Amino acid sequence: MRQALDLAAAAVGSTGTNPAVGCVLLDEEGTTVATGVHRGPGTPHAEVDALRRAQGRQRGATAVVTLEPCDHQGRTGPCSRALIEAGVRRVLYAVADPNRVAAGGARRLADAGVEVVGGVLRAQAEGVLEMWLTAVRSGRPFVTWKFATTLDGRSAAVDGSSRWISSAESRRDAHELRARHDAVLVGSGTWRADNPRLDLRHGVVGHPPLRVALDARGELPPDSRLLDGETPTLVVTEPGAEVASVDEADVLRLDTDARGHFPPLALLEALNERGVRSLLVEGGPALASAFLRTGLVDRVVTYIAPLLLGSEGVAATGELGVGSMGEAHRLRITAVDRIGSDLRVELRPSASTRGKQ
Fold this sequence. Notes:
Low-confidence stretches: none
Helix content: 25-40%
Number of strands: 16
Largest sheet: 9 strands, mixed
Mean pLDDT: 91
Structural class: alpha/beta
Number of helices: 11
Order of helices and strands: HEEHEHEHEHHEEHEHEEEHEHEEEEH
Strand content: 15-25%
Distance between the termini: 36 Å
């Protein structure tokens, strides 16, 4: 199962609306016969990929797969039936499929006389599948907020400059993080100040995420790097606003609230309908705070540089509605790593913070 999880983890960010799944086929002696991995919509699922690679050696084998085999006829056939027809004797899976359309594979396998064992290394598999599972279970994309900050919590200097707070090693790691998400989001303040490309650079290879730019008034200039045509861009604007040089198919129209901001949950639900299952928020303090206030941040990744900018610098977050320590948004640290001259810290919202939604 650990081998299957490694296969799945390597595919995260490249499978679109589908989960990243790995499969290992073992013979009766426990020797690996073949491995498989799902590579995206329309391609063979991990089980079928492994069966094809087995070249006839799959009969009587054990299939170890990270997600319950599907029982659904979509672009590809049901994996449950493929395993039965291939003569697989035993199936071990880690996580039950929460998708009602595809679930039921374990029961079909058992009804056909295949020995089925579920929950193998489930916690580890939940971690690998976390972004997809969150989207399926909640109806909105998994949200990661990424930012770089100085030691005193500043994301930019007083003149607005922020290049480069983090080290080259941190910037490469941030692009690898970007490659593992379906979409990356920035607000108008960021595209005005930085004119970002939001593509994959620093030698990082993978599927570039959809670029999502908030532009309530339709002011994104035609010469913006976000409109270079090299990577798809979705412009989010109000109904009736005109967005220059952008096809209507690449425009998402949402109503803003009384303050002229897009409600984060409505935005996430609209992105989910467009197939976005994971979102990387790279905008400035106002955008980050909007997601934090509504409890819609699932993970925080920050690169802390050994720099000091003082009170004149731009804070990493904006208004959070915190008036006392008891109202603070609390997070728990899940990982700390040294990258170049920086610290990379990964955090998750605590249960008390989640309860503020």
